[in-house]
Amino acid sequence: MLTPLDPKQWDLTKAAHLLNRAGFGGSPEQIEALHAMGFDKAVASMLNAPDDSQQFAKPADIAPVNYLAMIAGLADADKKTKVQEIQKQQRGNMLELMNWWLNRMAQTPNPLREKMTLFWHGNFATSVQKVKQAYLMWQQNETFRQNALGNFGDLAKAVSRDPAMMIYLDTRESKKEHPNENFARELMELFMLGIGNYTEDDIQNSARAFTGYRIDPRDQSFRYAPFQHDDGVKTFFGQSGKYGGDDIINLILQKPACAQYITKKLWKFFAYENPSPELVTQLGGSLRGYQYEIKPMLGEIFRSAEFYSAKAIRMQIKSPVQWLVQTSKILQTDMPPTIVSVNALRQMGQIPFAPPNVKGWDGGKAWITTSTLLFRYNLSNFELSNGGLGVQAINKLAAANKAAGRPEKEVTNRKPVDLAVIAPPDVRSNPDKLIASLCFRLYQSQLTPKETQPFRDFLKDKAGDTSDQTVRELLHLMMSTPEYQLT
């Protein structure tokens, strides 16, 4: 067991930390409301938030695509035209799906479930660039969501039957005469165990267990083809039997390295990088004690003193998705238009549904380069006033997307952030009070005098002017700091 936090140490900083890490942050009012619950009830509220499924129905245009049926009977030239038409529609549907998920992250009353959906997307990385169907990516996203806080073994088995994953790692083509090893290899190397905990023979034998997995072309659902399955004896981790795919996953779950591998990833995602070997062993033991149930494991993490330590609070670089969603919540404004959001995430290095490879995103310091940091600074200007990126540049991008078959409406000036809410008149009457208020909103803590000196100098140069334009410029200055990139 981790060391439980003393409830007497529960304060606004820790409440903000829980809201940032177990979700996507929030306004000062939301932080204060979470703090007012008290420590135990606050953690419970994150773990047991209400279901939001009715609030976020599947995007209407996203449906299964049966390519074979749609081109049946067409001449060869017409088939090519029809396929291009379908692919163009799929690109538009993917933009809609990305926007749908980003808005769900920003608006959901169940932020932990969306945060875990994002975590599983990074762990079981699958890209639309190969899958090429918006419906299949939505379907996988729902699989992650439905199992987000459930049993890890159940999720791994569901992923092994997920059509998007079956396309991405080629199990839909694996048959007993020629078993494909891609999924079997990544299942152990990246999804469940980590390098060094299996052999090439284990890969070859487990690949045989996943033969016969197919996709029904009519509705894009999983189906099992028994005549394509190798039902012979396989030897895996030194044990022999007529194993199927679920048997392989069960045997992986029995290895202590599996629990340690996934809890180390969870700790890195929610707390901090490079936990000690002793902590990893402890975390793995806890997960095995919970029989791989994720919710109680997260409950132990979120109630631990280690989670709220100086190594964790405001020491994590925001991922691009976290930056974008958290910024909208901090500024209490809508998410940017779809074309802006998707382009911004592309420039910052994290496009949902399109991880760079099967390993997912590296995260951490990899999020920050000279170009991505500059883009974050410019994007904060756009968030505040439609400046920085420039509407003309965005419209130019929209036109390029349209020419490439990804139609998107031109971007009009966004409704500006409500500065009367962000910085009401009573706060503007005193420079120190204004800076302190904005620091808590943007950083969820107070910076040192040295760190706030540029803000004081800025207001001093304004000679008492605290108009909306001044506040907007001050916010941009504060968001264009290294401190704002941390959460």
Describe what this molecule looks like in 3D.
56% of the residues lie in helices and 3% in strands. It has helices at 12-21, 28-36, 39-47, 67-71, 76-107, 111-123, 128-131, 134-146, 152-160, 163-168, 182-192, 200-209, 245-253, 256-270, 277-289, 294-302, 320-330, 338-348, 370-385, 391-403, 419-422, 425-428, 431-443, 449-461, 468-479, and strands at 213-216, 221-224, 234-236, 239-241. Residues 387-391 have low confidence and may be disordered.
Ordered list of secondary-structure elements with their pairings:
Layout: H1 12-21, H2 28-36, H3 39-47, H4 67-71, H5 76-107, H6 111-123, H7 128-131, H8 134-146, H9 152-160, H10 163-168, H11 182-192, H12 200-209, E1 213-216, E2 221-224, E3 234-236, E4 239-241, H13 245-253, H14 256-270, H15 277-289, H16 294-302, H17 320-330, H18 338-348, H19 370-385, H20 391-403, H21 419-422, H22 425-428, H23 431-443, H24 449-461, H25 468-479
Helix pairs in contact: 1-2, 5-17, 5-18, 6-8, 9-13, 11-12, 14-15, 19-25
Share in β-strands: under 5%
| Structural class estimated from helices and strands | mainly alpha
Backbone shape: globular
Uncertain regions spanning at least 5 consecutive residues: 387-391
Could you give the order of the helices and strands? HHHHHHHHHHHHEEEEHHHHHHHHHHHHH
Give the number of DSSP strands: 4
Question: What is the averaged pLDDT score?
Answer: 93
Q: What Rg, in angstroms, do the CA atoms define?
A: 24 Å
Q: How helical, in percent, are the residues?
A: 55-70%
Q: What does the main sheet amount to?
A: 2 strands, antiparallel
Instruction: Give, in spatial order, the strands making up the sheet with the most strands.
Output: 1-2
Separation, N- and C-terminal Cα atoms: 26 Å
Number of helices: 25
